[in-house]
Structure formats: C-alpha cells, structure tokens
Amino acid sequence: MSDQGGQGGQGKEPRKAPEPSGVDLARQALAAAREQARARGNAAGGKKRQQGPGLRSGARADGRDPMPLMAALDRLRTERGWEMPMAVAGVMERWPEIVGPEIAAHCEPERYEDRELVVRCDSSAWAAQLKLLAPQLVARLNADLGQGTVRLIKVQGPGGRPKRYGPWRAPGSTGPGDTYG
After folding, report:
1. Which residues contact 12 (CB under 8 A, 6 or more apart)?
2. Backbone φ, ψ for residue 112 (5° rounding)
3. Are 31 and 20 in contact (CB under 8 A)?
4. Residue 104 near residue 90, CB atoms below 8 Å
5. Chain centroid to CA 173: how far?
6. 3-state SS class at 55
7. Residue 66 has pLDDT above 70, yes or no
C-alpha cells in the first residue's frame, strides 16, 4: 500500500494546477456570463419560456385559429364597449318603425349623447307635438334598448339656413342681403 493520496505530505510537493489555455479561459468566461445572465433574469422576475401543450400547433382549436367575421366583430364590439352606441345606431335606422311613418316624415334623430337623443323637426308644430309625445317615446326606446338607455329626448325646431363660412364671409354677416340692399 503506497501513499499516493497525498496524506502525510512527506517529501512530496502539492501539485499546482496547470495554467488555463485560451479555450479554457473562453469556457470559464462563457460560464461566468451565463451565470450573470441567469442571476439578472431571476432578479428582474424573468420567467423561462416553457412550451406547454397549448402553445404547439396541432389539429385542435385554440385561440390563434381564424374565426368567422361576424364572431370577430361581435367580440370586438364587446371588448370595446360599443354595444350601446351600435344599439342606438340601430334605433336611428329603425326610426320610422318606432315612431310611425307620419312622425318620421317630419322628425328625424340627429345624435345621441349622454343618454339624450336629439331630434330635429321640420316645423315648430311638429316640434310641439313631439315634445308632448316625448315621454311615450322614451318609454318605447328604453323597452327596445334596455332600461335607462334614453333619459331624455331633446326636440329642436327647424333651423335657419346653414351658416356658410369662407374667405368672402364677414363674421356676423347674414348673407348677401347684408351688403347689397
């Protein structure tokens, strides 16, 4: 039995590790860089990307599959909260069915803002008539769209001529009669 394990240290010098060569230095540098990157990833809360069963391509349906156009539009409408404006737009298209053909011939909805429907009438007589019918119309619209959708109907009478703006118009002028006669 010889003493080769280095015990006792009698007459033998401990061996020194050989100087690392260029390849060994590169391996050590790479290992150190990997360790630093791993430490940075853990410190930043980074997660390793794990490929689970849902991330593979396959024959079964998943969230990345194409969908029919109407389903995509319905999903977009729901995600963006456009249900109410679209419902009100549908009411504006069905205005003659809701109020009747006689009223629809003389009054038309202009806009819907803050649960208020603005309706313009072609004469002051029809505006007065629609003001009297407004509570019934609000009830009918809320029955169609859902309670609380329309709070108030603002009725506007006929407007004057549309104001024309441009380089040849003076602010506050009323038109050609203002300067020629």
Report:
1. 6
2. -130, 115
3. no
4. no
5. 44
6. helix
7. yes
Are the CB atoms for 149 and 99 separated by under 8 Å? no
DSSP 108: E
Residue type, 118: V
Query: What would the two tokens of residue 83 be?
Result: 């249900």
85 or 66: which leads in pLDDT: 66
* pTM, two decimal places: 0.45
Laid out side by side, the sheet with 116-121 consists of 107-113, 116-121, 152-156
Q: Dihedral of CA 120/123/124/125: which sign?
A: negative
List pLDDT tens digits, range 104-141.
Answer: 899 988 888 888 888 999 888 999 999 999 999 889 88
Amino acid letter at 102?
Answer: E
- Residue 55 banded pLDDT, cuts 50, 70, 90: low
CA distance 163 to 160: 8
Mean per-residue pLDDT of the chain: 75
d(C-alpha 23, C-alpha 20), whole Å: 8
Q: What is the pLDDT of residues 146-180, one digit of tens each?
A: 787 788 899 988 876 555 666 666 666 665 554 44
- Residue 170's CB is within 10 A of a number of other CB atoms, namely 8
- Alpha helices in the chain, H assignment, sequence order: 22-43, 69-80, 83-93, 95-99, 101-106, 124-145
Question: What residues are paired with 117 via a beta bridge?
Answer: 112, 153
